[in-house]
Amino acid sequence: MTNLVNGANAAAVASPADVANAGNVADAAGLSNPANVSVRDLKIQLGANTVIENLDLDVRAGEFVVLLGPSGCGKSTLLHSIAGLIDVTDGSIEIAGVDMTWADPKDRRIALVFQSYALYPTMSVERNLSFALRINGTPKAEIARRVTRASEMLQLGPLLKRKPAQLSGGQRQRVAIGRAIVREADVFLFDEPLSNLDAKLRTELRRELKQLHQRLGATMIYVTHDQVEAMTLATRMAVMRGGVIQQFGTPAEVYARPNNLFVATFLGSPAMNLLKGTLEVRDGSHHFCTAHLRLDVTQYPFKDLPTDRLPCVLGVRAEDVRVGEGSSTEMNERANISLIEPMGNHRVIWLDYHGVQIVSIDQTKTPVAVGDTAAFAFDSAHISLFDEEGGARL
Prior knowledge:
- The chain is of the alpha+beta class and 394 residues long.
- Helix content is 23%, strand content 32%.
- The protein has two domains: 16-256, P-loop containing nucleotide triphosphate hydrolases (Rossmann fold); 266-387, CATH 2.40.50.140.
- It has nine helices and 20 strands.
- A hairpin with a 4-residue loop joins strand 16 (333-342) and strand 17 (347-353).
- It is globular, with a radius of gyration of 25 Å.
């Protein structure tokens, strides 16, 4: 079983019946049109703990939106409030333009997949898939059509007569997803559905989920703390911290132009390189300066700067650090190689630059070894600068 509230003081637990009844059954004609979801000025308070405050989120019809963040950031709480499993303190939730803030879960036309499989152990796969339809009085022919359709999508046909105990973890999660598909809902909600699987199964099911979204064209909202899942699945992703959305955009946008230091360091493996220094403005030019480095950043469109000397942090992704002679005409820096990690198609090179660790993802065949002193440079087209005090992007 899984907690309905992530990072909160409550400890409500979902039963298989809760999962089965989390959404209403759509018309027998087929899959409903995907719905947009609009969250406005949402506040959720659990006891004395304010989990979410003044949150806005717009999910377009047919999008795959991922809520990404560390444990306790409020992402599961937000998902469960959309599902109607948590009462909101203030604000509104609309689905397909209809106010659903206080509607029962069964009236929201949603389907929810939890982290735990929550399958009935005594029922076959076929009966697990059809359970919600049977208790809602759906005609037998319609049940058969939907179960057949879902089992074909998820390659469950040969498993329909098996019990959950006879299935692997990946197969059980397919059944849980299939149980959501047969509901033919307007919005599909996923609460870390792959976190209980091993790495190989996560990769396989992640690919299947993406293909499933392409086939269904459905609106999907997916919660995870895994940045790889977020980057590969999302059409747009919301990075959350402390109940606040730090940035909402496409994976490429969020990765390349993080709004603040938290987003910059949360995304990426290895994490973004950070160097503290000063942004100096003089005679119309801008330079990032440290005790050992002076880098011309005049080409960047800075916002209005409050002073001509601003403490800031330079950020650069590991793949934008080039190691080797002739790596740049703009920088002439050298550092000691402290560690090399071979990764097959690339290597991760760690540099000691005046006591600061700089990491590079290197795909060249340049011969280097631990202990060498190597030239390095930043790709100046892909650096970020942040205000040191507030962390905001400059």
